[in-house]
Amino acid sequence: MINKFFKRILNRQFKSLSFFLMLKYIIALLIVITITFFSIPKFFDFQKKQNLIESYLLDEYALELSNINSIQYKVFPFPNLTLKNVKFGIEDGSIMSSTKNLKIYLNFKNILSLKDFSAKKLVLMDTNLNVEIENYKNLLNYMNELEEKLKIKNLDLNFRKDGNLLFKLEDINILNYGYKKNNVSGKIFEKKFKINFKNKKNEINFKILNTGIKADFFLKQDNLNSVKKGMSKIIVANNLFKFDFEIDDNHLILSNAYIKNKDLSANFNSIIEFSPFFYISSDIEVTEIGKEFFNKINLNSLIFENKAFIRKLNIKNKVKYKSKKFGSNLINNFSTNLNLAYGRLTFQDKTLIPGGENVCKGEINLIDEFPRFDFICKLKISDKRKFFKQFSIKKNFEKEILHLYYEGSLNLINKKINFRKIEVDGNLKNKNEDLKYFKNIFERILFNENFFGIFKEKKIKELILEII
């Protein structure tokens, strides 16, 4: 009885073991068959199918290939055809690009045959894409209208004007399917950024990570073939920008715009032209300016670290300022015209001060190794009492009106000034000792800190007392 019991148990165990052994062999066999199945295409010559592949990419992805170094079949991570060092055009060649790896992920039916060829998705890796700034909309149209699955990894996007680089976005990652299809990441100015599209792409959120810079754009319509209108709010550290915008193929218009922080408030309207050349024109009205505003400007850093960018700018600006407390501030009214092209800045301004006015014009080449600021100025004091009262200086005057003409040059970096000519009420101060005298007191009093020290009332008062 006991023997029969153990025999029954042993038979059951043997059958179970036999089943598991058989299952193990079946699984091993399936693995071998699968590997064999997916490996067979490695022996195919896909170069002979290049025309078929090119036709498919043109028909389904609107990519017109002009060069392919090689076509390789790879099993991992999923079966795909990898095209090496590919050059191609988008939107009838208006956008040119090259990529180190173009991966076509295959459907199961195309593992052994490319008949009725179709791809599961397309992946571009390490891609360089050049877009003329006026053709940016073609790129947006392409990404918006593409129905096939596309993933782009490590894209460098170069925006150009007449072949010259304006700016670039680096290491961009983007895909048009899945739960991340509305997200874009990359680098701008060597800083990581993220873009998120919402509300059918009518709301765009942009953020540069770890910088305090973020921007929200709200579009009024989603028809990419017409003028785009909307509004934007941008925060840069503690600076707030808000503006309405209108953009088309040739220009960007900013209206009802303002910038505000604890040191500066200003309203402005701007037009940025993309064609026939890149150009910015602005009307700026400064409404408030804090005492510490100029102290926070580092001219050395602003000029030396941005010379390549400054060289590309073509700008015409009108700036004006009117004090809300007329008569109590050093500057009651100020207006200037600033023109910047190829690194050369020219200006012409007029400043109303208590009891008089100062008119200046000049130029500076900002991309020189040591930028030198050339100026010609005329100061007219029509009411000396009012002028000196501003600085709490009491003095009797023989003559009410003062005319001062002065011209020279100023090295912004080294804080050195040279006067070529000084004329007081028609009397020329052209002796070397006179010019050297004015040079020394200007450098010692006004420029002992930085260029913007000339706007400090305390320093101006010290200079006046030294001269009179």
> How would you state the average pLDDT, rounded?
81
How many helix segments?
Answer: 8
- Count of distinct structural domains: 3
Note poorly predicted spans: none
Query: Pairing-aware structural class of the strands and helices?
Result: alpha+beta
Instruction: Count all strands and give the number.
Output: 24
Query: From the alpha-carbon coordinates, what is the Rg to the nearest angstrom?
Result: 35 Å
Helix content: 10-25%
The largest sheet, given as strand count, sense and whether it forms a barrel, is: 24 strands, mixed
Whole-Å distance between the termini? Answer: 132 Å
Proportion of residues in β-strands: over 45%
Write a concise keyword list for the protein shown above.
alpha+beta; 468 residues; 24-stranded mixed beta sheet; 3 domains
Structural notes for this entry:
The protein has 468 residues and is α+β, with helices and mostly antiparallel strands. It has helices at 2-39, 50-61, 136-145, 299-304, 307-312, 384-390, 432-446, 457-467; strands spanning 63-67, 70-74, 80-90, 95-106, 119-132, 150-161, 164-175, 183-188, 191-198, 203-208, 213-219, 228-236, 239-247, 251-260, 264-273, 279-289, 314-322, 333-341, 344-353, 356-365, 372-381, 402-411, 416-424, 427-428. The chain has a 24-stranded mixed beta sheet that branches. Helix 7 (432-446) packs antiparallel against helix 8 (457-467).
